[in-house]
Amino acid sequence: MTSSFSNLSLAEPLARAVAEMGYESMTPIQAQAIPVVLTGKDVMGAAQTGTGKTAAFSLPLLQRLLKHENASTSPARHPVRALVLLPTRELADQVAQQVKLYAKYTNLRSAVVFGGMDMKPQTLELKKGVEVLVATPGRLLDHIEAKNAVLNQVEYVVLDEADRMLDIGFLPDLQRILSYLPKERTTLLFSATFSPEIKRLANSYLKDPITIEVARPNETASTVEQRFYSVGDDDKRRALKQIVRQRGITQAFVFVNSKLGCARLARSLERDGLKTTALHGDKSQDERLK
Questions:
Q1: Which of 118, 138, 186, 189 fits a 20 to 30 Å CA distance from 33?
Q2: What is the pLDDT of residues 169-191, one digit of tens each?
């Protein structure tokens, strides 16, 4: 199996976009999933965030949609043919940006819809016609109910971060969305873990899927170095500041277990002269995007 993007028989517009983005070697999930998705088979992939799975499903999916590519301005000539569902607004936005970059030299259109934002601009974009729609489940249902999104020509559906979608309680929404799709379609499901719930979802909605597992459950990506520090509760903040300073860290993500704790820690770091921003569920979508 090849591990170089240049050895994939991608269509010229896609190959050009990929080369421009500096992609050379494929990650394990890409090397295993791309050839399978190109055949049109259903896939159940075990992969964590950060393993390159957006390219693993987007590139072959775009390749297969090129047969529908057209330069017509008529929305009817650009129905939704691929649907990508994600659990959070930020992930949806990130995946949509990647898809736009991969498709930039094609006539395939893509759009993203998620909550926390005004529906009007999203509606205008959907009404113009898009082939690839990236969405969070709740907002997609709003658009389906408003007749802005018609899904009767969908050929591909991707459930990305499926375990997290189930954790957030999206199962009823997912079932409703899938009921609007044609029975004849390709379904790709990606999840960090194959829990019993995920397996049930796969059994209900996937046909003879090819299972691709590139990481053992709960295994950290090989690019990640882990360190563990044992400190008392009262010393955590001091330890964090010391690590940041000693290691000369210029950018860091710090995960905190509550909104209040997050806001307090950000203020404390800010007082110590470290440029800090808090990001949590009580922020508006505009603040989150900023």
A1: 138
A2: 999 999 999 999 999 999 999 99
C-alpha pair distances (Å), 186 with each of 36, 139, 155, 158, 199: 11, 23, 6, 9, 17
| Rounded average pLDDT over 115-137 | 96
Q: Which residue has the tokens 């649907």?
A: 83
Residue 36, token pair as written in the block:
């399978």
Question: Same structural domain for residues 166 and 247?
Answer: no
How many residues can be counted in the chain? Answer: 290
**Same domain (yes/no): 201, 277:** no
- The whole-model pTM stands at 0.79
For 267, left (φ over 0), alpha (ψ -120 to 50), or beta?
alpha
**239 in the same domain as 151:** no
Based on the number of CB atoms within 10 Å of its own CB, is 238 exposed (0-12), middle (13-18) or buried (19 or more)? Answer: exposed
